[in-house]
Write the structure tokens for this entry.
Amino acid sequence: MRAPSVRFTNLSLLLALLVAFGTGAGAMAAGTASGRWVVIAHGVAAMMVILLVPWKSLVVRRGLRRRRPGRHASLLLAALLVITLLAGLAYTTGVARSVGGVLGMWIHVAAALTLLPFAIWHVVARRVRPRRADLSRRTVLRTAAIAAVAGGVYAALGSAVALAELPGTRRRFTGSYETGSFQPEAMPTTIWLDDAVPAVDRRDYRLVVVDAAGRRELSIADLARFGSPMHATLDCTSGWYAEQDWSGAPVSALLRGIGNARSLMVHSITGYRVRLPVDDLDGLLLATAVGGAPLTPGHGYPVRLVAPGRRGFWWVKWVDRIELQTTPWWWQSPFPLT
């Protein structure tokens, strides 16, 4: 097959990277089977990038002969792209789930985030003016053909992993591997970004509940008295998941009225917080125990939120306040910043 033009290669690669970044962020948030398509789209976009790499390498070799300013930054961008792809493939197939004790998922994500500013710089520094031909029928068909081939490669890779019985066949649709199901002591104590496990005195602890009827405080004993069971899967964005039997107080049972609230703010002792829609209230649990035993400090003692169908960063640990608010639930960063 004759190599496409430099312009087509660059624009197609840019499109594939944009889709890969967008669906990558979506895949981090997907927690229910309805979000499976986002994960699949992310994989197909990655395959499209891989298919374009040989053609892009020809462009790179030509560019290196001219010794333009910023060539070292361009080479670093290429290296980061290779690391991102290799880490993603290694983790997806299960060939290498960690490197030096660091989970491959985090290597994949970290390399991609580091790559992003270099990619933006590259687009600005090598600016290409739009042309009408960029949206011509021929260009659209050629791009669609590459995307279709990428989809076939993605499907073939999945089949190869299954035939080889690699660990990747046991992943959840989110890409996470089972770790510590029904064995809370074996479940990782992953913490989002910079939080640290706080020391909590059981005698002093109080959960603040703010609802339509006002403010009140509840002790650990008050919450543990409910003992309502819930089977739920905790799926962490670090690339692991665990099924557990949780027990505690249903959030809906703690609220004396909703009024005109549009969201529930769940706050941690560490300052971490998320906002959930009021439509989720009936499915939320403030767990005080898991697997029939009290939570350990690393797993959120004395109280953590259980939010079925949502990824791990929604499952706030060390909850000390829940508050109904009129602010829409989506009025927050897509991913917590701390």
In short: The two ends are 49 Å apart (CA to CA).
